[in-house]
Write a sequence for this structure.
């Protein structure tokens, strides 16, 4: 479940809904057609609190595909590209910020 | 090593089968996440930032080579080829798929390894000195008593839903290598004037949001009364511990609020009612557990054999020997610490190949036994001194011979924001940058013993409060900032560090730490005065003045 406090969230810019895929925990984003994608570029982007709450509520209705859904900030490029909106989300997209042991 | 019996093996096999069924029902949708989450947590399965994390208990830090080799297999087959040793004598795998978890758990269960008691509001994995049974001056092997507590607490119906998690640590040596004073219950095994074995009992220590050093509630508890006394503590906690506020639910808050004296009185009253009951241990019961610990058949050897004397002419070996080899209770043998802190690598991480190497070396040189310490290093507790040169050469070839144990680059760090869903700031890259600043081993040796601990959030998994230098990551307006404390320590003189000053940015941390260390070098009374002693003598003000003037 997403944090309950997000039911009252205030949105001040573009956001999306993200979660972890049930089967393997991979990071996924809610798409406009009600599915989930492992590519941030496919994410549904909204800009108002009401829209974000609605997107989150829809994502939480069925937790068989993705779990732990919450609203996360994104940055939109002038060319329409989507980037994660803070460090935590950047790490979720790109992985740890150091070289993994190998 | 402790030898599991058929009961233990059957229990683990049943537990894996049960979890396999639970995972199957979750994947089919028969269980919701709300229903499944407490079940996975009871098996050490968390959902972290990027993936599922599997936390595996290493009871009292003792592993055999088969178990470590199996962990390497799990890392290689089910994860990304490495594992992370934690401050609680656990290992964590960071990238396990839920659908493959039952298979991974089955592989681990075959060698007696599992994630039970590594999560949830139960009595967690009981921890102790990684040198247990090998170090001179020990009153008894603390692992025997940890094993008794493990058997007592595993799936204990009364203590499965405590107000919060519960951590017990035991030490039996004059030097505390188990940080017992910052655990919910700390037990110091010793002998009284009559020569009887017993425990000094401390309660209410802990770090996290509200850090405390444990309070003494009983100077001497006869060893045979351990279970009944722990049960009395748990009952008092279970009855009076707060359940309305997660931040006030740990036993340390209860002890703090009612006072150690009142708490002790309540425990003693409860204990009086049960001390002569079913939990009173007989000599036979203790002997039964003690008898399941097999000890190496040590050869009769002399200290300082010629092979070692010859090898010590090699400066690199001598440096490693001085740093990583410690006195064993049996002549001609040694305790070897293996640093998992090579400069520039994530603290506490070991690759599958490195785990295999250590397992092989343990078989060849250390009676097949490996230990894990809360400092996130490994240890071979029983090595013949004549084998040290060959052991070192093999460790060196595997990147496991960095001679920095207890030095400034031997940093304890939690996974931080790079992995953990609770974290506010990164910890591992901070540790890496600091270690790089002190990569010169001569400089590091000149600084001497210095413990840096880093946590990526207030939950303090990196034990920052008790680092000689503690670093706590916090988030301000979407940016990472770090609070620095000085003077903490986790040993027999445990105390919490003192805040140095305002938090600094991620980029400022390595330079600030370097300034703290340089200030110490200028202010210390002489080369023999350790960093922690200089801070104790002068306080943090001289450090604050110099460090913040420079930043």
């Amino acid at each position: 479940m997403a944090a309950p406090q997000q039911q009252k969230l205030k949105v001040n810019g573009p956001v999306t809904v993200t979660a972890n895929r049930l089967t393997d925990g991979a990071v996924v984003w809610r798409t406009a057609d009600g599915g989930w994608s492992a590519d941030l570029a496919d994410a549904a982007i909204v800009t108002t609190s009401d829209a974000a709450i609605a997107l989150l509520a829809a994502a939480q209705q069925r937790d068989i595909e993705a779990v732990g859904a919450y609203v996360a900030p994104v940055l939109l490029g002038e060319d329409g590209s989507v980037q994660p909106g803070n460090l935590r989300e950047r790490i979720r997209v790109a992985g740890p910020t150091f070289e993994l042991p190998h | 090593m402790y030898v599991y019996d058929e009961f233990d093996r059957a229990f683990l096999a049943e537990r894996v089968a049960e979890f396999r069924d639970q995972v199957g029902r979750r994947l089919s949708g028969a269980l919701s996440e709300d229903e499944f989450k407490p079940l996975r947590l009871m098996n050490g399965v968390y959902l972290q930032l990027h993936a599922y994390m599997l936390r595996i208990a290493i009871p009292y830090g003792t592993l055999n080579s088969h178990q470590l080799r199996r962990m390497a297999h799990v890392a290689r087959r089910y994860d990304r080829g490495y594992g992370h040793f934690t401050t609680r004598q656990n290992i964590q795998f960071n990238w396990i798929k839920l659908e493959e978890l039952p298979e991974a758990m089955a592989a681990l269960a075959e060698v007696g390894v599992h994630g039970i008691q590594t999560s949830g509001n139960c009595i967690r994995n009981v921890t102790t000195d990684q040198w247990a049974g090998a170090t001179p001056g020990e009153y008894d092997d603390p692992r025997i008593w940890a094993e008794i507590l493990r058997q007592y607490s595993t799936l204990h119906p009364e203590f499965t839903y405590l107000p919060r998690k519960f951590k017990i640590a035991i030490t039996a040596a004059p030097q505390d290598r188990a940080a017992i004073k910052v655990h919910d219950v700390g037990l110091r095994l010793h002998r009284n004037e009559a020569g009887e074995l017993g425990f000094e009992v401390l309660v209410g220590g802990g770090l996290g949001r509200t850090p405390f050093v444990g309070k003494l509630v009983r100077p001497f508890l006869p060893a045979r009364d351990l279970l009944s006394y722990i049960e009395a503590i748990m009952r008092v906690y279970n009855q009076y511990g707060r359940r309305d506020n997660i931040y006030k639910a740990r036993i340390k808050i209860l002890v703090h609020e009612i006072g150690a004296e009142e708490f002790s009185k309540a425990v003693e009253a409860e204990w009086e009612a049960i001390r002569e009951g079913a939990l009173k241990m007989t000599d036979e019961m203790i002997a039964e557990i003690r008898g399941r610990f097999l000890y190496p058949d040590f050869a009769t050897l002399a200290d300082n054999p010629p092979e070692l004397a010859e090898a010590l002419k090699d400066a690199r070996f001598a440096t490693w020997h001085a740093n990583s080899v410690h006195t064993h209770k049996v002549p001609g043998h040694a305790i070897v610490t293996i640093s998992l802190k090579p400069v520039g690598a994530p603290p506490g991480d070991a690759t599958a190949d490195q785990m295999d190497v250590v397992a092989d070396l343990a078989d060849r040189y250390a009676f097949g036994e490996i230990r894990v310490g809360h400092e996130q290093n490994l240890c071979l507790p029983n090595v013949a001194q004549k084998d040290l040169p060959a052991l070192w050469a093999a460790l060196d070839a595997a990147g496991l011979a960095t001679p920095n144990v207890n030095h400034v680059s031997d940093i304890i760090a939690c996974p931080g924001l790079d992995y953990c869903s609770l974290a506010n700031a990164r910890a591992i890259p901070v540790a890496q940058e600091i270690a790089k600043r002190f990569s010169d081993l001569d400089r590091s040796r000149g600084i001497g013993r210095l413990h840096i601990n880093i946590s990526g959030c207030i939950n303090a998994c990196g034990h920052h409060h008790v680092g000689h230098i503690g670093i706590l990551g916090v988030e301000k307006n979407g940016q990472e900032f770090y609070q620095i404390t000085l003077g903490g320590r986790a040993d027999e003189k445990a105390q919490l560090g003192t805040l140095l000053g305002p938090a600094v940015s991620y980029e400022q941390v390595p330079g600030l730490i370097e300034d703290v260390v340089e200030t110490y070098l200028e202010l210390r009374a002489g080369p023999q005065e350790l960093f922690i002693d200089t801070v104790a003598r002068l306080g943090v003000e001289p450090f604050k003045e110099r460090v913040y003037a420079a930043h």
Observations:
- The CA atoms of residues 91 and 98 of chain A lie 10 Å apart.
- The beta strands of chain A are 15-21, 27-30, 36-37, 66-76, 82-84.
- Chain A has two helices and five strands.
- The mean pLDDT of chain A is 92.
